[in-house]
Amino acid sequence: MGALLVVAAEPRELAGIRGRCRDVRRLDCPLWYAREAVLNGRRLLLAANGHGPHLAGEAVDAIAKIEQPEALLSAGYCGAVAPGLRSGTIVVASRIEAPRYDLQFDARPPDSMRECVVGPIVSVDWVVRTSEEKLSLHATGAVAVEMEAAAVAARAARWWIPFYCVRSVTDTAEEDLGLDLNAARDAGGRLRTGRIVAQACRNPFLLPELLTLWWRSRLAAERLGDFLADCRF
Question: How distant, in Å, are the alpha carbons of 32, 47, 131, 207 from that of 11?
């Protein structure tokens, strides 16, 4: 059986699943993060290269130069756009909507008995910050929003291999983000932690939000790891 390539934006999004793997080793690959591991007898290739479709596509292409994966999984955090979804909720995509390019891609559900929300996920190249924008995205039928899945799905379609997308909610549909995470991205698209912290230091009322996002990110990664460890792809 070939390897399942799991693509996230940041290494911390893969912390939950990595902690449940064995035989983890570093891959010689020019990415922010690249590992090979084994989970439940299935070989995984774990990659993180930054936020947005361009960097996610680079991650898939770089791994494919080493080994052609058997299937692709876009994993990590997402923002809820459907009301009522709490932080840590697992969202499994039924399809990926890429409104900027007027494209959509089908996504397969993994085989799992764990509780999750299944529905369309919209993929954009910016951090959605306001409840108003989230409501607008939900009106299209989406349940969540993220930034990398469209690029991963496009390569799966090109190579005629299975594509999956499993995400864990950090921010809810009902709340606005005071932190301007888009301004914290560098020229390549990566979120820079130093820029986020600097925003909070300049505006102390943002510190509680920063701490909340940090805690939710850890929760989301753990919940994602629990879910993926019980999945069959």
Answer: 8, 8, 27, 23
User: Global pTM?
Assistant: 0.96
Distance CA 77, CA 42 (A): 23
Q: Is 216:170 a contact under the CB 8 Å cutoff?
A: yes
Q: Find all residues with CB under 8 Å of 178, minimum gap 6, and list them.
A: 203, 205, 206, 209
Structure tokens at 76: 């990590």
Which amino acid makes up residue 193? T
Contact between 229 and 38 under an 8 Å Cβ cutoff? The reply is no
Token reading at 32 = 């922010």
Can you give the pLDDT of all 233 residues of the chain as single tens digits? Answer: 689 999 999 999 999 999 999 999 999 999 999 999 999 999 999 999 999 999 999 999 999 999 999 999 999 999 999 999 999 999 999 999 998 888 999 999 999 999 999 999 999 999 999 999 999 999 999 999 999 999 999 999 999 999 999 999 999 999 999 999 988 898 888 888 889 889 988 988 999 999 999 999 999 999 999 999 999 99
CA distance 183 to 195: 8
